[in-house]
UniProtKB/TrEMBL annotation:
Protein name listed in UniProt: Uncharacterized conserved protein YegL, contains vWA domain of TerY type
Listed InterPro entries: CLCR (IPR051266), Tellurite-R_TerY (IPR011392), VWF_A (IPR002035), vWFA_dom_sf (IPR036465)
SUPFAM superfamilies: vWA-like
Superkingdom classification of source: Bacteria
């Protein structure tokens, strides 16, 4: 699905820039088929292109992608924005969202340990979830971990929903940020907001509080 240059230990040591790790959690269930998945794939390409236009974000942002549909799958491990190349997500299966959130938190814990071992500073990590459905697995413990992790400033959790998603369930994953619902399939606008936000983070100093632009009413409800 993805063509990536993997981040090995040499990359950690050769690039001394502080890092902002981001996990994209993308619903790839069967209900995402058709125009919806086509627009999502196009938006992901736009996201990568836009991040690469910023010299700091290109070095400081690391993107991992996890899909959840037929199964929870790490389709790309952490890679620099410079190396991020999206190809195609193929929808299939149900919506194991709980397992995907567990996977994202575990991945961030492991990546932060690697940063510490390499002596690298890092920004608060991001988990960015997109779904159009209701979890079909045991999601309650994953929601608890997400809430607790965000409350302890271990990461920031952002949830975006398209038509069909259960907003009441999504609200259980964060006590700080309510889920955002898209107008239609405005994935391009959503991912441009994400890349703009990550650029702002990459221009700051790790640990410094910054104000992010709110998602626009033009593409959220």
């Amino acid at each position: 699905m993805f063509d990536q240059i993997p981040l090995d230990d040499d990359t950690l040591y050769s690039n001394p820039e502080p890092r902002c790790p981001v996990v994209l959690l993308l619903d790839s269930s069967g209900s995402m088929s058709g125009e919806r998945i086509n627009l999502l794939n196009q938006a992901l390409r736009t996201f990568g292109d836009d991040l690469r236009d910023d010299s700091l974000a290109m070095k400081r942002c690391e993107i991992a992608t996890v899909t959840f549909g037929e199964r929870v799958e790490v389709v790309s491990d952490f890679a620099s924005a410079e190396a991020f190349r999206h190809l195609t997500i193929i929808p299939n299966g149900q919506t194991p969202m709980g397992g995907a959130v567990h996977k994202a938190i575990d991945m961030l814990d492991a990546r932060k340990a690697q940063y510490r071992n390499a002596g690298l500073k890092y920004y608060r990590p991001w988990i960015f979830l997109l779904t159009d459905g209701q979890p079909t697995d045991r999601w309650e413990d994953a929601a608890r971990r997400a809430r607790e992790g965000e409350e302890k400033s271990q990461f920031a959790f952002f949830a975006f929903a398209v038509e069909g998603a259960n907003m009441d369930t999504l609200q259980q994953f964060s006590s700080k940020r309510p889920p955002q619902k898209l107008r239609g399939n405005n994935f391009r606008e959503m991912f441009l907001w994400l890349s703009s936000s990550l650029k702002s983070v990459s221009r700051s100093t790790p640990g410094m509080a910054i104000s992010l632009q709110k998602p626009s009413d033009e593409w959220t409800i």
